[in-house]
Amino acid sequence: MKTIFIWIALSGGLFFLLVGTIGILRFPDLYTRAHSAAKCDTLGAVLCLFALMLYNGLNFSSFKLLLIIVFLWITAPTATHLIAKAYHKGKIRENQME
Amino acid sequence: MKRDIISIKALVLYMIFWIILAEKIDFQVLLIGLLINIMIYLFNKNGESSCHIGKRYQLIKRWKLFICYILLLMKEIVIASIDVASIVLSRELNISPRIIKFKTRLKGDLLKTILANSITLTPGTLTIEVKNDEFTVHCITKNQITGVKNSKFEELLLKIEEQ
Amino acid sequence: MMVEKLLIFSSVFLSLTILLCTIRAIKGPNPADRLIAINVIGTKTVVLISIISFILKESYFLDVVLVYALISFIASIIISNSIETNRRERQ
């Protein structure tokens, strides 16, 4: 029973990570690439780590994995937003200098 | 007066983190953890974040709404990823990206940060800049714009903010 | 048994996706494109090391993963700050 949940969560996580990478390769502009990196990457990583938590049972290592999941959830979209903001401000300054 | 006494809440949080890292509950672990936590607390005492642990009472008092908010966020990110997957895997990309600005009615800094993070995690939108009251947001398709202007997140956060 | 085989397959699959992401890091015409690719590679490395720690059954790799996630976040903040303040002209 638990094995079926682990299979579903791990394959879902790997699928979303693959879609995120294809999105980075295919989109034409930086803002759209940041979309794919912020959303699909976070969800794929969280699902994979959640499957590892189920595989381990109730243990101290599961608490460490939970801590890593919370940290990735909060900081991965924030880092992508900072990169988009830096690009936006650089483009505004370049348009003003011409 | 309150700043001279060591804040208990910060020490409890550090101790929980230390026990998770050390993987067993023992006398030596607790003793060394206590010494290291006190040193870390004294090192960060004059900074911003260690004074504010007791002050974020808005979120802790209304914890039911906060849990509803977190569940809504989890549902939204699943829908968002499926949306991006359906755009990426289709045969030709039909996207029309645009940048919009809008004003918000929230006042606190922490709540504006949470709203900006949630806008990044909803399908089709990405926060670019937050500047006193004005959000700059980038959308992928044209019909996401109405979803941003009166979104469910802002209503929930306004309900949390009024006391 | 079956979960072990699935973990080994997923670690190989994850390394292939990291290789695909490096193409964007080499090709991207902006420094910001490369930075997004490096961020994604960092997140994937976190998942890869966690899976390997369960294959080899050693529990101390998770401490390495925690520190690596923190360092990758700080690196992304610092490099994006440097892109914002000194913007070089691209020909």
Automatic annotation (TrEMBL), chain A:
Pfam family, one: PhaG_MnhG_YufB
Gene Ontology MF terms: sodium:proton antiporter activity
Keywords assigned: Membrane, Transmembrane, Transmembrane helix
Top-level taxon of the source organism: Bacteria
Bilayer topology: Multi-pass membrane protein
Localization terms from the record: Membrane
Keyword Chloroplast: no
Transmembrane segments: 6-28, 40-58, 64-84
InterPro entries, per database record: PhaG_MnhG_YufB
Family membership noted in the UniProt record: Belongs to the CPA3 antiporters (TC 2.A.63) subunit G family.
PANTHER family to which the protein is assigned, alphabetical: ANTIPORTER SUBUNIT MNHG2-RELATED
Listed name of the protein: Multisubunit sodium/proton antiporter, MrpG subunit
Species whose genome carries this gene: Paramaledivibacter caminithermalis (strain DSM 15212 / CIP 107654 / DViRD3)
From TrEMBL, chain B:
InterPro entries found in the cross-reference section: Cation_antiport_E
Keywords, comma-separated and alphabetical: Antiport, Cell membrane, Membrane, Transmembrane, Transmembrane helix, Transport
Subcellular localization, as worded in the UniProt entry: Cell membrane
TM region(s), chain numbering: 5-21, 27-44, 65-89
GO cellular component: plasma membrane
Top-level taxonomic group: Bacteria
Main location: membrane
Membrane topology: Multi-pass membrane protein
PANTHER family the UniProt entry points to: NA(+)/H(+) ANTIPORTER SUBUNIT E1, NA(+)_H(+) ANTIPORTER SUBUNIT E1
Family named by the database record: Belongs to the CPA3 antiporters (TC 2.A.63) subunit E family.
Name this polypeptide is given: Multisubunit sodium/proton antiporter, MrpE subunit
Originating species: Paramaledivibacter caminithermalis (strain DSM 15212 / CIP 107654 / DViRD3)
Organism taxonomic ancestry: Bacteria, Bacillati, Bacillota, Clostridia, Peptostreptococcales
TrEMBL record, chain C:
Keyword Ion transport among record annotations: no
InterPro entries, sorted: MrpF/PhaF-like
Pfam family, one: MrpF_PhaF
Any one Gene Ontology cellular component term annotated for this protein: plasma membrane
Assigned keywords, A-Z: Cell membrane, Membrane, Transmembrane, Transmembrane helix, Transport
Membrane topology: Multi-pass membrane protein
Parts of the chain that traverse the membrane: 35-56, 61-83
Protein name: Multisubunit sodium/proton antiporter, MrpF subunit
Organism lineage string: Bacteria, Bacillati, Bacillota, Clostridia, Peptostreptococcales
